[in-house]
Recover the amino acids of this structure.
């Protein structure tokens, strides 16, 4: 199966809220499930794929969020801890970019869905942080505005090319209400990122961290 490369996927990904009535099956489903298993093992999470169940996106909240045709989603579940939101962001975005490479579209959703109607198992000590709508989009979505690069890092002087590439990928990362409330810095050659406030900024932090790592090939220190 031909897969889009991950750098292209970062550029091609936009939030999509309207989906076609087309099921996720076959090799696409299999590759998604393999990656979910890997993320769950590596991140100690309990992410679950829900297919063919529109209930969580049928109510007033989903309409308010202008969602339609959502019948597949990832439920992002894991053990309660201070780091859970960030961990979910970090691994959830790996699944978002894989979905894009497989020809699917997606949207992170923390507010405009019905949590109670999710077809998900949340064990004692666990929490469902949010979901990611998934499927074949009615459109590919549209590019949106970003803060300027200079607002998102505090490195002075000339930026190394590899750092610029990392920042470009960070600017393309989805954040809640497009708030982009993060700051990247360099400590020697090491990339650091911290959240600067805002709603769901822990999830955002993990998402942006993953984009930075993909684009620079370096490990990023967060917090
Ligand atoms: C943690 C998080 C939560 C989000 N929650 C919602 C939501 O409840 N409803 C919604 O319509 N979009 C939601 N979004 C999508 C953002 O609005 C979107 O990612 C942002 O505007 C940037 O646009 P882009 O994804 O097209 O780059 C969420 C995104 C993130 C990262």
């Amino acid at each position: 199966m031909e897969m889009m490369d991950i750098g292209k996927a970062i550029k091609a990904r936009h939030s999509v809220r309207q989906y076609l009535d087309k099921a996720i099956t076959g090799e696409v489903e299999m590759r998604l499930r393999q990656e979910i298993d890997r993320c769950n093992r590596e991140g100690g999470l309990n992410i679950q794929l829900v297919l063919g169940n529109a209930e969580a996106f049928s109510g007033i909240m989903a309409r308010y969020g202008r969602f339609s045709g959502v019948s597949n989603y990832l439920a992002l579940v894991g053990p309660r801890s201070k780091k859970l939101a960030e961990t979910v962001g970090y691994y959830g975005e790996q699944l978002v970019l894989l979905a894009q490479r497989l020809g699917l579209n997606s949207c992170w959703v923390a507010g405009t869905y019905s949590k109670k109607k999710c077809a998900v198992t949340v064990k004692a000590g666990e929490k469902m942080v949010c979901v990611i709508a998934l499927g074949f989009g009615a459109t590919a979505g549209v590019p949106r505005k970003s803060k300027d690069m200079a607002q998102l890092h505090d490195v002075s002087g000339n930026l190394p090319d590899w750092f610029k590439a990392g920042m470009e990928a960070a600017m393309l990362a989805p954040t809640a209400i497009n708030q982009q409330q993060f700051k990247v810095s360099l400590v020697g050659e090491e990339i650091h990122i911290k959240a600067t406030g805002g709603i769901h900024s822990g999830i955002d932090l993990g998402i942006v961290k993953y984009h930075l790592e993909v684009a620079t090939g370096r490990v990023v220190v967060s917090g």
The chain has a mean pLDDT of 97. The longest helix spans residues 26-43. The radius of gyration is 17 Å.
